[in-house]
Amino acid sequence: MKNLFLQKKDVFSFFLVCLFFVSIVLTPNSVNSKVIIITLLYSLFFFNWRSLKTGLSNHYPLLLFFIICSLSLLYSDNLSLGLKRIERLTILPVSILIFSFLPLKRSSLTNILKFYVVVIFTATIYSHIITIITFINNNEPHLRNIFKLNYSYLALGKTIGLHPAYYSLYILTAIIILFHFFKKSKLLNQIFVVLGILYLSFFIIHLSSRTSIVILYVIILFNLITFLFKKKKILRGFLFLALFHIFAYLAITNIGTTKYRFQHIFGFTYYTGYTVNDGDHKLKLWSAAFHANKNVFWGNGIGDVQKALNEQYELNNLEKPLNRSYNSHNQYIEYYVGMGVMGLLAFLYILFYYLKNFYQRRNLIGLQFIISTSLLYLVECVWNRHNGIVFICFMIGLLWKLNSDYEEG
Questions:
Q1: Which residues form a coiled coil (predicted)?
Q2: How far apart are CA 183 and CA 216, in angstroms?
Q3: Which of 80, 111, 166, 206 has the smallest CB count inside 10 Å?
């Protein structure tokens, strides 16, 4: 059995990482957790001290943050909730172990990225098929109703059991990867890649996740500028940029739910008299959450974050966040409340560390991934949920292994 593992170690590693992406996107968290455990056990089969030392050296910011969060249990009143949060954060050291020992050839890394894109296309096409079937069964009178709330946003995400923010994160990552393959493909393949990017971009707009749409804009703009200017096609570049902005404007303003959700940011009143002002609500939520910190340097403790937030929601008459026990909807504020300036700086250092590393090695996939997730943290506590932190840790580990490829150009 051992000889079989040694002979087929790369094949098994490839299979397990692919299985991870299938399970994180298309199956319940319980299935994904089992896949992670199996992957960890398999990777430990190749344990050696040198690899462990290298892995810890490469990813020490993750371990440092995990230690700071764990130490905050010492001053958390709600130890039970704190332990649950730490349990979710164990993916930080687990991912370090997995990607320290997991044997993967360079060709396998590229194939894994391709497979991931296939998984995302499978998920999005399935979601659209289910949505269209529901649309037809409801005997909708107009085709444009496909862009109403019943077939967009939460309804579209529910087709595979994902919140739009996390669904969008997975799709944005696939788009970043597709841009990478576009630059390395011949003309015919480039056409198919562009069609894939257009479809996935349309899906994100249909999902109506506002922050993800803004991130999508940043990704496309970044890749258009870097590609066209690298080719020294300045005039053509400006033309493409102009067409891109026209297309983006028409797409957003003509998809019902997406248009209304953007209008909600600045305040919008329906004909029934119902008023929505998401921007004002979010600012009040963030303000209340920021003031929930009772110890600027150390924070309240990871187990007492929600209790402190609820107290501030009550003081500021924020009934909906209080009744539903909302988190701060901002990952930076969330960790400031839990671990104070110490925890926030440790979290920011993670982002800075990987951003700098990917930039130095010209790893544009990794660079864009860190930027995209950093923007998403402004409105979502992504690390509070399994679908967020597990996916991010695995992508960081995988993209780090690509660094050697980029160093060689």
A1: none
A2: 18
A3: 80
Phi/psi at 48 (5° precision) = -155, 150
Same domain, 283 and 258: no
pTM of the predicted model over 0.90 = yes
Task: Please indicate, yes or no, if residue 202 is contained in any of the structural domains.
Answer: yes
8 A C-beta contact, residue 83 and residue 73: yes
Tell me the C-alpha distance between 387 and 91, whole Å. Answer: 11
Quick one: tokens of 89?
A: 């954060």
For residues 112 and 102, give the distance between their C-alpha atoms in angstroms, rounded to a whole number: 14
Q: Looking at the structure, do residues 130 and 95 belong to the same domain, yes or no? A: no
- Helix/strand/coil for 268: strand
* φ, ψ (nearest 5 deg) of residue 233: -110, 70
**DSSP, residue by residue, 92-156:** HHHHHHHHHH----HHHHHHHHHHHHHHHHHHHHHHHHHHHHHHHHTT-S-GGGGGSGGGSHHHH
141 lies in which domain range?
120-266
Answer yes or no: do 80 and 140 share one domain: no
- Asked if 140 and 169 sit in the same domain, the reply is yes
Domain boundary among 266, 301, 329: 266
Look at residue 216 and tell me whether its pLDDT is greater than 90: yes
Q: Smallest Cα–Cα separation from 101: which of 20, 42, 57, 61?
A: 42
Find out whether 168 and 212 touch, Cβ atoms under 8 Å: yes
C-alpha 200/C-alpha 192 separation (Å) is 12
Determine the 3-state secondary structure of 276 from DSSP.
Answer: strand
Reported as a single tens digit per residue, the pLDDT across 272-287 is: 666 777 788 899 999 9
Condensed to tens digits (0 to 9), the pLDDT of residues 358-374 reads 999 999 999 999 999 99
Residue 275, classed as helix, strand or coil, is: strand
Longest dimension (CA), the chain: 72
In a domain, 14, yes or no: no
For residue 236, the surrounding DSSP H or E stretch is helix 234-253
Return the SS3 of 84: helix
User: Residue 221: which of 277, 179, 163 has the closest Cα?
Assistant: 179
Boundary of a domain, candidates 266, 294, 328? 266
From 278, 251, 281, select the one nearest 264 (Cα to Cα).
278
Query: Is 27 contained in some domain?
Result: no
Q: What is the DSSP letter of 408?
A: T
Q: Return the half-sphere exposure (C-beta side, CA atoms, 13 A cut-off) of residue 311.
A: 12
